[in-house]
Amino acid sequence: MREHGGNLDLAQQRFGGRAEDWIDLSTGINRLPYPVGEVSARAWSALPSRAEIEALHLAARHAYRTSAPMIALGGAQAAIQLLPQLAAAGRARILAPTYNEYAGVLSAAGWDVQEVAQLDALVGADLAIVVNPNNPDGRSFAPKDLLALLPLVGRLVIDESFADAVPQLSLAPEADQQGLLVLRSFGKFYGLAGLRLGFAIGNAADIGKLAALSGPWPVSGPAIAIGSRALRDDAWAEATSARLADDCDRLDEMARAQRWTLVGGASLFRLYETQDACAAQEKLARCQIWSRVFAQKPTWLRLGLPGSEAEWTRLGEVLAR
Amino acid sequence: MREHGGNLDLAQQRFGGRAEDWIDLSTGINRLPYPVGEVSARAWSALPSRAEIEALHLAARHAYRTSAPMIALGGAQAAIQLLPQLAAAGRARILAPTYNEYAGVLSAAGWDVQEVAQLDALVGADLAIVVNPNNPDGRSFAPKDLLALLPLVGRLVIDESFADAVPQLSLAPEADQQGLLVLRSFGKFYGLAGLRLGFAIGNAADIGKLAALSGPWPVSGPAIAIGSRALRDDAWAEATSARLADDCDRLDEMARAQRWTLVGGASLFRLYETQDACAAQEKLARCQIWSRVFAQKPTWLRLGLPGSEAEWTRLGEVLAR
């Protein structure tokens, strides 16, 4: 398995403790999740109906401000797994550094994969991948610059897993354009990654192919029920966006006191340049706070945002040592 | 979308009522589900860890009496969706009539698909599919007859979605043999189809391929938590098998009073030969009991088993009219 955040079992193996003892800041998952509430017996027991899945799509169209065709899948990851089947293998170019599953999945499927550093180096690719805003460095791109790229590549995939708090960056409203495919994650912003829910939004032909590849029941009844409710809850989304903005400032300030420099970040994570990221990770981990380091970048430390005030206090105390 | 049971929205469109008013006997899903219980905050929020997924696999190995490699997926259906990628397209032979997703998925992926009526007509296929016991007619095959077929086909897929109550039929214990792949459904016997959980059990090479194709988080946190508990609950499984056997007898007796003849069945459904299945379906549907008919077989009516005593009473009253 490729290196990922959220690998808390590795943290436990190395530093002990039960899962519930840890504050897992190794991912960009909101630690104050949308309230799950009561899940109906039908959601657990019955096969999801077409009507229920369509209601979820409508809620997602509302949240993502689009009328484009879409399909709910088991997380943005499930869409990534299907990408190699949308077209015959060719040249894939990925704006990097970024989420490593793109290169991994496409290489395994026989694509010629190259990671590039600049947007214009994507030109000419059969498949171009941009994560916007990008994970882990928070680099972001204006919709008009991405749309300018669209006629110059075979297919342009925009991964908007961290775009919930920055709707002005989203290409979801334009996603039905030929050659464009937008991926959204539900679990990160709504803090329910275990639910496995995400969306692919695009033109009817691509979404039809993805629907055929993923079968009649690609997401669970609880995911449909909870997602349909959450994606219509504008008040929660607005309050959460505002809270995350404040929390980013708060974490950046704590980092400055450590003499860590902000490389960049999105609303759910911050990437810091440190003296020695492994040492910083170990210091935090001895107090059961898990973080993300990168084998290729020994000074980079990525931190998600603490949730409760108790978590902020614990992080502050550990850093003050 | 292909014709399936569990299409309650179609029933509602034609005959009215809310989903919760209906007794859905159009599927083979146990209507007295395993108790979901409390789902932890971590199961909803965190990405499932390797350790949690491995614990689920261990529970499934216990329930399915096997030590073979396996992977948990979003239902047996998710495994079916991946079948075309296990090998280059070739000749697929399917023991029919059976679950129509096999022919649909393989045809769409460019396989030459032929449905055959007898086990020995599968010989020579690159991919042979047998559902055991079979849906909808309950036909079943001895493990030794299936193992005899194994060297005579490229790959043999045995779908054991309805085998929970007949472990003596299961090839799960032998599933690591070259060329064999066994699929199991969690949601039917445990009555939690909305959870989307199933397993592919086979040799290390096939399971490794399926794992790579399905990515790091193919099933949800709640599915892992509930599945891990349910699959270790031998007492519940034994009591449920015994109850289902009694219930099959009870339904068969009600059917005899209608002069319906039993074509066959498994522990979660019965298939009856009627005068006119559409008329029977309509009679039941007017009282909000949904059943399964088959376009190709106008006399076949498939019924799942009612759950509560109130459901049995309602079915009895409707049939007595």
What's a concise summary of this model?
The structure is a homodimer of 321-residue chains. Chain A has 321 residues and is an alpha/beta fold.
Q: Quick check: average pLDDT of chain A?
A: 96
Using only C-alpha atoms, the radius of gyration of chain A works out to 19 Å
Low-confidence stretches of chain A: none
Which overall shape of chain A is indicated by the principal axes computed on the Cα atoms?
globular
CATH topology of the largest domain in chain A: Aspartate Aminotransferase, domain 2
Helix content of chain A: 25-40%
Report strand % of chain A.
Answer: 15-25%
State the helix count of chain A: 11
CATH second-level architecture of the largest domain in chain A:
3-Layer(aba) Sandwich
Biggest sheet strand line-up of chain A: 2-8-7-6-5-3-4
Task: Count up the domains of chain A.
Answer: 2
Run of helices and strands of chain A: HEHHEHEHEEHEEEHHHEEHEEEH
CATH superfamily descriptor of the largest domain in chain A: Type I PLP-dependent aspartate aminotransferase-like (Major domain)
State the distance separating the first and last CA atoms of chain A: 34 Å
User: Structural class of the helix and strand makeup of chain A?
Assistant: alpha/beta
The top level CATH class name of the largest domain in chain A: Alpha Beta
Which two chains touch over the largest interface? A-B, 57 and 57 residues
Oligomer: homodimer
Written overview of the protein:
2 copies of one chain form a homodimer. The first copy, chain A, contains 11 helices and 13 strands. Chain A has 321 residues and is an alpha/beta fold. Chain A has 2 domains: 112 residues, Alpha-Beta Complex (Aspartate Aminotransferase, domain 1); 192 residues, Type I PLP-dependent aspartate aminotransferase-like (Major domain) (Aspartate Aminotransferase, domain 2, 3-Layer(aba) Sandwich). In chain A, strand 5, helix 6 and strand 6 form a beta-alpha-beta unit. The radius of gyration of chain A is 19 Å and the shape is globular. At the A-B interface, helix 1, helix 2, helix 3, helix 4 and helix 5 of A face helix 1, helix 2, helix 3, helix 4 and helix 5 of B.
